[in-house]
Amino acid sequence: MNLMANLYASGENIFAVAPMIDWTDRHCRMLHRQFTRRALLYTEMVVADAAIHGKREKILGFDAEEHPVALQLGGSDPSKLAQAAAIGEAMGYKEINLNVGCPSDRVQSGAFGACLMQTPEIVAACIDAMKQAVAIPVTVKCRIGVDDQDTQAALDDLTGRVFAAGADALWVHARKAWLKGLSPKENREIPPLDYDRVYRLKQDNPAKFIGINGGIQSLAEAERHLQHVDGVMVGRAAYQDPLLLLDVDRRIYGEPTVSPTIEGIIDHMCAYSDTHIARGGRLSHVTRHMVGMFHGAPGARRWRQMLSTEANRVDADSSVIRRAYEGIGNAAAEAA
């Protein structure tokens, strides 16, 4: 039994950083891993066809230091998803997650993502195929419903089918998705959150892993949710203010370790950035995920400016990060 299978079966709470398109790439995950050794990290959604036919290192490559890291797949063809899942397992991912929650035009045109809430039998077939293809956990991330669905009936139906097909966990974004009339951004904000619906789902499935996602802004909120469900997944809040992750290991996992130092994190990301540049990358590929690091702190505006401008120069290297961080220290000293 692998790391994630052990974790899902152990009854231990799980804290995860949500898969976010255009955000949770390998550089973002490397940054987040510096704040927490234990949180489960997810890739951006990768469409099954891209995993099968695309440039695998570019699309699926990651550093072993990112573990535990899960691959989120998008699609609705069981055979393709099974093939993509096997590729992900061979590359070293610890979990395969099926996206049943994204409402973007792209997924609607392909009839997957949140559209699959309307065809739970297809979701179950996909899970069954992936479970037969891999030995690592296969999980689902969904909404509580879409459009005019009755969330009680729709979510119960989906839940019963995916667990019967062998799913190891269900992560639920506690909002409906509206497939017509709302943009993906609006679908993350306008439909009201219904945490109680997810709590009831857990009460009705006490032996199954149920995790919650949507609108969670702090570790204090995460701790309150964990009184009702098995896992908490935080998205935009963790991306926009990565320091939120700094105390995850102690507060969520009960580890008596000292939190990482900001200086150590800066040093690591500087070394990582220079290695990425030496391989032909750009500093901005890394620093775009670091812009929110000092949200609300003295000097944060200057930090954002430097990482948004100087880091975009073709010849930029890690010295930009170091100079920006010196500005944080100077601003803090002036404010003291």
Explain this structure to me?
The protein is of the alpha/beta class and 336 residues long. It folds into two domains: 3-251, Alpha-Beta Barrel (TIM Barrel); 262-335, Up-down Bundle (Four Helix Bundle (Hemerythrin (Met), subunit A)), CATH 1.20.120. Helix content is 46%, strand content 15%. An eight-stranded parallel barrel has the order 1-2-3-4-5-6-7-8, surrounded by six helices. Helix 5 runs parallel beside helix 7 and helix 16 runs antiparallel to helix 17 (319-335). It is globular and about 60 Å long. 47% of the residues are buried. The active site is at 102 (proton donor). Keywords: Flavoprotein, FMN, NADP, Nucleotide-binding, Oxidoreductase, RNA-binding, tRNA processing, tRNA-binding. FMN binds at residues 72, 141, 173, 213-215, 235-236.
Please estimate the helix content.
Answer: 40-55%
Which topology of the largest domain does CATH recognise?
A: TIM Barrel
Per CATH, the superfamily of the largest domain is Aldolase class I
- Largest sheet features: 8 strands, parallel, barrel
List keywords for this structure.
single chain, 336 residues, alpha/beta, TIM Barrel, Four Helix Bundle (Hemerythrin (Met), subunit A), eight-stranded parallel beta barrel
What's the structural blueprint in terms of helices and strands?
Layout (H helix, E strand, L loop, with lengths): L2 H8 L3 E4 L8 H10 L4 E8 H6 L2 H5 L8 E6 L3 H14 L4 E5 L4 H5 L10 H14 L4 E9 L4 H14 L4 E9 L6 H4 L7 H10 L5 E4 L5 H7 L5 E4 L1 H5 L7 H4 L10 H17 L4 H5 L12 H9 L10 H17 L1
Parallel strand pairs: 1-2, 1-8, 2-3, 3-4, 4-5, 5-6, 6-7, 7-8
Helix pairs in contact: 5-7, 7-8, 16-17
Pfam family, one: Dus
EC number: 1.3.1.91
Cofactor: FMN
